């Protein structure tokens, strides 16, 4: 693990939170914004099955890791399980508002079927790439209030809670990959990592855009107007894709590690609200 740069004093703290149970939620919960609501609804649909895949791919390589990483993998697993539970509940509310998410779910099943047919190390590399995506989206959500401005209280808190834990465990899949590929040359490791990220990036945005447009159409926004509105939302204001480009690009640099950008200040900023929900520590001391 000599190449790992996860802070030695980092502790991954699963927080057992529940959001929105028994509370009314507007169909357009993100301040009445058709585009923003559709984007986050479509993203949420991916989480329950996607995070189960992340857990499987990381745990497949846990044998032989050091005690610190073993504890982090355990904490990562707990966090992802609770995230899945809360997004199942969130997605149930999406269904209750009359949205048809069956096409989005079928697409996820298709992608995961293809992914699970790949070698285990490629599945881990895919998880590592997607964990980088979730970490940089999370950093944006916590550092730029504009993204969730107007969200109802419970939905906004769900996304912020999820974001802080994604930042907290952003190095776990990467450190597991370093362990799993410790006998490979740096060139071969970099090749696997970068080619997988390029493939994942094309698939990720293709399907997120398709899913968002599908949900927007169910609110009556279709055709070129829908595409223009979504392009403006992603690239201009609040412009999450445009703002993600520098952090995404850093993934391809020699010596990259998720914790080269230490944004634990965002965790400290957000976590005070969730201190009462901390689960017993499961991370071994560094």
Structure description:
There is one protein chain. The chain is built from ten helices and no strands. With about 290 residues, it is mainly alpha-helical. Helix 1 (about 35-60) packs antiparallel against helix 7 (about 185-215), helix 2 (about 65-95) runs antiparallel to helix 5 and helix 7 packs across helix 8. The radius of gyration is 18 Å and the shape is globular.
Number of helices: 10
E-strand count: 0
Helix content: 55-70%
The unreliable regions are none
Strand content range? under 5%
Encode the helix/strand succession as letters: HHHHHHHHHH
The N- to C-terminal Cα distance equals: 13 Å
Features:
single chain; 286 residues; mainly alpha; globular
The gist of it:
Helix content is 64%, strand content 0%. It has 286 residues and is mainly alpha-helical.
Helix/strand layout:
Elements: H1 34-59, H2 67-96, H3 102-116, H4 120-143, H5 153-168, H6 172-180, H7 186-217, H8 223-235, H9 240-250, H10 264-271
């Amino acid at each position: 693990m000599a190449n790992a740069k996860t802070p030695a004093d980092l502790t991954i703290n699963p927080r057992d939170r529940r959001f929105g149970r028994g509370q009314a939620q507007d169909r357009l919960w993100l301040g009445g914004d058709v585009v923003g609501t559709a984007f986050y609804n479509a993203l949420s649909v991916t989480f329950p099955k996607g995070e189960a895949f992340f857990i499987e791919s990381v745990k497949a390589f846990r044998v032989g890791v050091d005690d610190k990483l073993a504890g982090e993998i355990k904490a990562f697993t707990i966090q992802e399980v609770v995230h899945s539970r809360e997004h199942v509940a969130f997605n149930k509310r999406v269904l209750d508002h009359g949205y048809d998410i069956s096409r989005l779910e079928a697409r996820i099943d298709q992608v995961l079927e293809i992914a699970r047919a790949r070698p285990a190390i490629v599945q881990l590399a895919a998880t590592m790439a997607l964990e980088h995506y979730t970490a940089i989206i999370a950093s944006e959500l916590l550092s730029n209030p504009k993204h969730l401005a107007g969200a109802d209280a419970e939905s906004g808190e769900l996304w912020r809670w999820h974001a802080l834990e994604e930042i907290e465990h952003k190095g776990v899949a990467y450190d597991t990959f370093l362990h799993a590929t410790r006998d490979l040359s740096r060139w071969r490791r970099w090749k696997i990592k970068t080619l997988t990220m390029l493939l994942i990036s094309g698939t990720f945005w293709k399907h997120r855009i398709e899913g968002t447009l599908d949900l927007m159409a169910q609110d009556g926004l279709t055709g070129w107007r829908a595409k223009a509105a979504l392009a403006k939302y992603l690239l201009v204001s609040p412009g999450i894709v445009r703002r993600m480009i520098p952090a995404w690009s850093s993934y391809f640099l020699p010596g990259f590690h998720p914790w080269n950008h230490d944004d634990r200040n965002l965790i400290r900023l957000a976590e005070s609200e969730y201190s009462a929900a901390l689960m017993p520590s499961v991370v071994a001391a560094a």
